[in-house]
C-alpha cells in the first residue's frame, strides 16, 4: 500500500482526498516510514520514478490487444473462417487396439465429459494425479536416464486412445461452388479423423498444422459429427518424433485451434502441407539500403471442372499499410491444377529493415479473380533483413552489423494445463521474455510453435531458431521426419524472425538437411549435438552457438542458505536462488557459460515438466532451471539478467534478510541494478553508495547492514533519471490477497483464469516465505483445475506428487463449465483472514458465425474414469505392495485430517500385514487417502483407493 500512496502523491499531490483516506488506514509505524520516503523523494533535481515492481503476470511494457490476433491473420473475405474449439466431448480408453465403433456418428457420448480446445488428458483435471505436470511422465520402464528418469512409471495414460467428438451444422448450406476444409493447428502426436462415418485420413506429428478437404463428406442440411481419435504413445509403431520426453513433457490431445474454412473453388491452397504447395513463398534476392527486389511465388488451385482464366493481383504494402507496388497476371489454369504464379517486384525504394530493435513488417496481399469477381484473398507478412554468421569471430551478423545474441528457451507448458494453454498465457510469456527480460533471441524449444507465438516473434522483434523434435538416439521414421520438416518450413518460411532451422537435438538420427534446403535455401541450418543423419547442408552447430546455456537447477522459494544450504557444483543438482545468482557470474559456475557470454541462449525462461529426476529437487518430473518458476514468479537471476541486459533503469533488492527474525543482525544486502550509482537508506538514514558496473556484473553488495524494523530503500541514478526500490518489513501474516487474470470471461470451457494468492500483514505489506496450507474453493459455473488443499513442498526431496508450492505467491486455475453466471473463488489458510475474488462469465457475440455449434450441458456427464480392469492387470504384474480392494468408504463428515489419516492407517495395517514394517509408505498412503476424503465429503470409492495404491506400488517397484 505504501508504494501505491507514493505513486499517488507523485501524480496528484499530498492534499488529494483519496490519498488522505489511504494514509488514515495506516498504522503509526507505517506513517513514519511513509514520511521518510516522501522526504527522500523530495530531494535532488533529477526526474524521480518510484519503481513499482510489476507482478510477473504483467511484466513488460506492451499490452496485448486483439490487434495481435487479427492484424496478421492470413485469410480474408470472401473466405469464411470459424474456430470450432467449444462443445466437444472426450473420453480416454487405455486399450492399445483401435476401436472403430467409437468413430460412428450414432455412438452415444451423452455421458462423456464436455471439453473445449485446447485440451490435453495428461493433467490433473483428467487423471487426478497430484502433480503440476505429468506425474507418470514415462510410458516404459526403459528410459535414457535409468532409474532416476522414470523406471516403473505407469503407462496407463500413454498407451491408449483419446477420443474427441464434435457436432456442428451450417447456418446456410454451402453452395456448390464452395470448398469446405477443416484445419488443425496441432494434435499430439498421432490422430485419425472421421466425419459422418467417413474416414478422412491420419496425421503424424504433434507440432505442425494439417487439414482435410471435407467438401464431399459434409451434410449441408443436417448435423455433422466430427470424430478425432488421438494417440500419444511415445514409443509408437510409426516412430514419430519425439519418442522421449526428456527436458519437457509432451501431453496428448488436441492442444491447438481447430477451424472450419470455406473457400470458393478457385483458391490459394493451405500453406504448410508436405503433400503439395500452397500460400506464398517470398524471397529477397537483392537488398541494400537504397533498394530491394522481392520475388513472390503464389500457388492458386482450380477445383472447377473446366479450364479457368485466373487473374492474380499481388499488392505490396509498407509498414504503414500503404501500397508500394502492384502486379497483376492472368493465366489459364487446368481443372485440378495447383498453378504457381511467379512475380518479381523490383526496386522497392529505401526498405525499412527488420531487426529486434525495429521490427518493420511488410505485407503481400494476394487477390484471386475469376470472371472479374474476387474468388480468394490471402495475406502474407515478411521483412527485409539479412543474417549471416562470421565463423572466424563466431558471431551473428544482422543487416551487415555484428549482433550480441542474448536469448532463452521457452517450452509451451504451464502447470495444471501442460501444453493445452490459452493464447493469453503465450502472449504473457513472450511479452515478458521480450520486454521484461530484453531477450533478442529465442529457441521456442525443439519444435515449431502455434502461429500466434511466431507472429509475436515477428511483430515484437526476436531472432528465432525453429526447432525440430528429433531428440536423443532413437531410430525415427525417415518418411515421417521428412513430412514434419517440409510442413514446418513451408508453414513458416516467410517469417523474418526465423534465422536458423534445426535438424534435431542431442541425437544420432537428425533430420536430413537436404529437405530444409530444398524448401528454403536462404537460412542457416543448425544441428545441436547431432551426430548422424543430418546431411550436407548443416553449416552451424553447438560449437558456434550452444543454444542451452547457464543450466542450473534452482527452486524458487529456496532464497538463501538458511532455507536450503546445499551449494552443488553440478548444475543438474538442486540449489537455492542466491547460489544460482552467484554461479551465473562465475566462469564455469553454471553449465555452459557465464551471464555475460557472447551468443548466450539461456536454459531456460520458465520451469516446466520433464521426464527427469534432479537430485534433491522437491518433486520428481519437474525441471526447475528457469529464470521464473512454473507459475512465472521470478527468481533472483531474473533481476540479475535485467541488470545486465535491459536499457530501462532498474534496481532490485534481494529481500530475504529484511524480515523480523533478522532484526539486530548484520547482513550483506545484495542489489542488482543497471544504474550508474545506488545509494542505500535504512529508515531514511543514508548508508553506503555503490556503483554497479560490467566488472561486477551490475551486482553490488552493501556489507554488514544492521537489520531494523522499518524499511530499506535504494535510490539509483542513471542519466537524468532517479528510481527507487523500497522493502518494508512485514509484520505478522494476517490476510490472504488474491489477483485474478480476468474479471470477465466468456461462458465457454476454453475460458481459463489464473488466480494468484499472496499473504500480507495488517498494513498490506507482502509477507515473505509464507508456506502454510492453502485451501481453495470455487462457487458458480467453474471448477478448479488443481487440488483444493495445498501443502507446501519446500522441505520435500524427490517426492512423486505435490503441487510445487514452496512459498507464496503461487497460482491456481479455474475453468468455466460452459454456463454464464458469477464465479467466486475463495482461498483460506488457518487463522488468516480469507479472501475471495469474483469473475463474471457473460455471453458475447464471439460464437456467432456461419456454423451452429450446439451447446453441451453438464447434466449426466461423468469425468474420465480410471478403469479397474487395468488396475487388475497391473496388480498381476506387481505381486508385492499394498493390496487392492473392491469396496467403497463412506466416512463421517466434519472430522479433521488427523482422524481420517489414523482411520486409513489402521485399515492399511489390517489389510496388509506384510507391509507393517513399511511405516513411511503406510504414512504416505494414509495421507493421500485422508486428503482425498476431506475433499470429497468423506467418500473414497474403490477405483480411487486402488489408483492411489497403484501409485505407491509403482514407486516401490521403482525404488526396490
Structure description:
The structure is a single chain. This protein is α+β, with helices and mostly antiparallel strands and 960 residues long. It contains 17 helices and 53 strands. The strands form 13 sheets. Strands 4, 5, 6, 9, 10, 12 and 51 form a seven-stranded antiparallel beta sheet that branches. Strands 31-30-29-28-27-26-32 form a seven-stranded parallel beta sheet, with helices on one face. A hairpin with a 3-residue loop joins strand 16 and strand 17. Helix 14 packs parallel to helix 17 and helix 15 packs across helix 16. The radius of gyration is 29 Å and the shape is globular. About 7% of the residues have low confidence.
Top CATH class of the domain at 80-257: Mainly Beta
If helices are DSSP runs of H or I spanning 4 or more residues, what is the number of helices? Answer: 17
Broad structural category: alpha+beta
Anisotropy-based shape: globular
Report the C-alpha radius of gyration, rounded.
29 Å
Uncertain spans: 9-15, 27-46, 50-72, 141-152, 871-879
Which fold does the CATH topology of the domain at 80-257 refer to?
Jelly Rolls
**Distance between termini?**
53 Å
Mean pLDDT over the full residue set: 89
CATH homology superfamily name of the domain at 80-257: Galactose-binding domain-like
Main sheet specs:
7 strands, antiparallel
- The CATH architecture of the domain at 80-257: Sandwich
Amino acid at each position: 500500500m505504501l508504494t501505491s500512496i507514493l505513486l499517488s502523491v507523485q501524480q496528484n499531490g499530498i492534499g488529494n482526498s483519496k490519498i488522505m483516506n489511504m494514509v488514515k488506514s495506516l498504522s503509526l509505524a507505517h506513517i513514519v516510514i511513509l514520511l521518510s520516503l516522501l522526504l527522500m523523494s523530495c530531494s535532488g533535481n533529477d526526474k524521480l520514478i518510484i519503481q513499482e515492481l510489476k507482478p510477473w503476470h504483467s511484466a513488460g511494457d506492451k499490452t496485448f490487444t486483439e490487434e495481435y490476433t487479427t492484424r496478421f491473420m492470413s485469410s480474408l473475405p470472401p473466405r469464411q473462417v470459424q474456430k470450432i474449439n467449444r462443445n466437444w466431448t472426450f473420453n480416454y480408453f487405455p486399450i492399445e487396439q483401435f476401436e472403430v465403433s467409437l468413430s460412428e456418428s450414432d455412438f452415444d457420448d451423452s455421458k462423456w465429459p464436455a471439453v473445449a480446445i485446447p485440451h490435453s488428458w495428461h493433467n490433473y483435471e483428467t487423471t487426478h494425479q497430484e502433480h503440476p505436470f505429468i506425474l507418470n511422465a514415462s510410458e516404459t520402464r526403459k528410459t535414457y536416464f535409468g532409474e532416476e528418469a522414470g523406471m516403473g512409471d505407469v503407462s496407463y495414460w500413454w498407451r491408449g486412445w483419446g477420443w474427441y467428438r464434435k457436432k456442428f451444422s451450417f447456418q446456410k448450406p454451402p453452395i456448390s461452388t464452395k470448398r469446405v476444409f477443416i484445419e488443425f493447428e496441432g494434435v499430439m502426436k498421432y490422430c485419425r479423423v472421421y466425419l459422418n462415418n467417413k474416414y478422412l485420413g491420419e496425421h503424424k506429428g504433434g507440432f505442425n498444422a494439417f487439414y482435410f478437404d471435407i467438401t464431399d463428406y459434409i451434410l449441408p442440411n443436417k448435423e455433422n459429427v466430427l470424430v478425432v481419435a488421438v494417440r500419444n504413445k511415445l514409443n509408437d509403431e510409426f516412430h514419430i518424433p519425439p519418442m522421449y520426453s526428456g527436458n519437457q513433457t509432451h501431453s496428448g490431445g488436441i492442444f491447438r485451434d481447430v477451424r472450419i474454412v470455406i473457400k470458393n473453388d478457385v483458391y490459394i491452397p493451405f500453406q504448410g502441407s508436405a503433400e503439395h504447395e500452397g500460400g506464398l513463398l517470398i524471397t529477397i534476392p537483392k537488398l541494400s539500403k537504397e533498394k530491394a527486389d522481392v520475388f513472390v511465388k503464389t500457388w492458386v488451385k482450380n477445383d472447377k471442372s473446366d479450364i479457368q482464366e485466373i487473374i492474380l493481383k499481388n499488392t505490396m504494402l509498407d509498414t504503414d499499410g500503404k501500397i508500394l507496388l502492384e502486379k497483376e497476371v492472368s493465366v489459364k489454369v487446368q481443372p485440378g491444377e495447383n498453378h504457381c504464379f511467379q512475380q518479381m517486384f523490383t526496386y522497392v525504394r529505401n526498405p525499412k529493415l527488420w531487426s529486434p530493435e525495429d521490427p518493420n513488417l511488410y505485407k503481400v496481399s494476394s487477390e484471386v479473380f475469376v470472371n472479374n469477381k474476387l474468388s480468394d484473398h490471402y495475406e502474407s507478412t515478411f521483412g527485409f533483413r539479412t543474417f549471416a554468421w562470421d565463423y572466424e569471430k563466431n558471431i551473428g551478423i544482422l543487416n551487415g552489423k555484428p549482433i550480441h545474441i542474448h536469448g532463452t528457451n521457452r517450452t509451451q507448458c504451464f502447470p495444471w494445463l501442460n501444453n493445452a494453454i490459452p493464447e493469453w498465457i503465450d502472449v504473457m510469456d513472450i511479452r515478458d521474455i521480450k520486454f521484461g527480460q530484453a531477450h533478442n533471441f529465442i529457441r521456442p524449444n525443439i519444435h515449431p510453435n502455434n502461429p500466434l507465438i511466431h507472429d509475436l516473434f515477428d511483430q515484437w522483434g526476436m531472432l528465432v531458431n525453429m526447432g525440430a523434435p528429433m531428440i536423443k538416439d532413437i531410430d525415427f521414421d525417415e518418411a515421417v521426419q521428412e513430412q514434419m520438416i517440409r510442413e514446418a518450413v513451408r508453414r513458416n518460411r516467410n517469417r523474418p524472425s526465423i534465422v536458423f532451422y534445426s535438424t534435431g537435438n542431442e541425437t544420432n538420427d537428425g533430420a536430413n538437411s537436404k529437405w530444409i534446403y530444398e524448401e528454403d535455401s536462404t537460412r542457416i541450418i543448425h544441428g545441436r549435438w547431432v551426430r548422424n543423419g543430418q546431411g550436407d547442408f548443416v553449416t552451424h552447430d553447438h560449437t558456434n552457438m550452444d543454444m542451452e546455456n547457464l543450466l542450473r537447477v534452482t527452486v524458487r522459494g529456496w532464497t538463501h542458505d538458511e532455507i536450503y544450504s546445499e551449494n552443488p557444483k553440478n548444475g543438474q543438482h538442486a540449489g537455492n536462488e542466491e547460489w544460482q545468482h552467484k554461479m551465473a557470474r562465475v566462469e564455469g559456475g553454471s553449465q555452459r557459460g557465464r551471464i555475460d557470454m557472447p551468443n548466450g541462449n539461456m536454459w531456460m525462461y520458465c520451469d516446466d515438466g520433464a521426464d527427469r529426476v534432479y537430485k534433491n529437487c522437491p518433486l520428481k518430473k519437474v525441471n526447475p532451471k528457469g529464470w521464473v518458476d512454473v507459475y512465472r514468479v521470478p527468481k533472483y537471476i531474473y533481476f540479475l539478467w535485467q541488470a545486465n541486459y535491459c536499457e530501462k533503469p532498474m534496481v532490485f533488492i534481494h529481500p530475504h534478510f529484511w524480515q523480523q527474525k533478522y532484526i539486530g543482525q548484520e547482513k550483506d544486502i545484495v542489489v542488482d541494478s543497471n544504474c550508474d550509482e545506488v545509494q542505500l537508506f535504512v529508515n531514511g538514514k543514508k548508508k553506503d553508495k555503490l556503483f554497479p558496473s560490467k566488472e561486477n556484473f551490475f551486482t553490488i553488495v552493501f556489507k554488514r547492514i544492521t537489520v531494523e524494523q522499518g524499511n530499506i530503500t535504494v535510490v539509483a541514478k542513471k542519466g537524468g533519471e532517479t528510481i527507487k526500490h523500497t522493502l518494508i518489513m512485514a509484520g505478522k501474516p494476517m490476510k490472504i490477497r488474491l489477483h485474478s487474470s480476468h474479471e470477465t470471461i466468456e461462458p465457454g470451457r476454453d475460458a481459463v483464469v489464473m488466480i494468484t494468492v499472496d499473504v500480507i500483514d495488517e498494513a498490506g505489506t507482502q509477507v515473505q516465505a509464507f508456506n502454510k496450507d492453502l485451501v481453495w474453493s470455487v462457487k458458480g459455473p467453474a471448477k478448479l483445475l488443481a487440488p483444493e488443499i495445498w501443502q507446501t513442498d519446500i522441505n520435500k526431496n524427490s517426492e512423486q506428487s505435490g503441487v510445487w508450492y514452496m512459498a507464496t505467491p503461487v497460482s491456481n486455475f479455474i475453468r468455466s463449465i460452459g454456463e454464464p453466471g458469477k464465479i467466486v473463488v475463495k482461498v483460506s489458510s488457518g487463522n488468516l483472514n480469507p479472501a475471495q475474488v469474483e469473475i463474471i462469465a457473460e455471453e458475447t457475440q464471439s460464437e456467432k458465425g456461419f456454423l451452429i455449434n450446439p451447446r453441451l450441458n453438464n447434466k449426466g456427464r461423468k469425468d474420465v474414469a480410471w478403469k479397474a480392469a487395468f488396475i487388475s492387470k497391473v496388480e498381476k504384474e506387481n505381486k508385492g505392495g499394498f493390496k487392492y480392494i473392491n469396496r467403497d468408504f463412506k466416512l463421517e463428515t466434519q472430522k479433521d485430517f488427523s482422524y481420517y489419516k489414523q482411520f486409513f492407517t489402521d485399515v492399511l495395517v489390517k489389510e496388509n500385514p506384510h507391509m507393517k514394517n513399511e511405516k513411511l509408505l503406510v504414512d504416505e498412503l494414509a495421507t493421500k487417502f485422508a486428503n482425498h476424503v476431506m475433499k470429497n465429503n468423506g467418500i473414497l470409492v474403490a477405483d480411487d483407493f486402488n489408483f492411489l495404491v497403484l501409485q505407491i506400488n509403482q514407486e516401490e517397484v521403482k525404488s526396490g
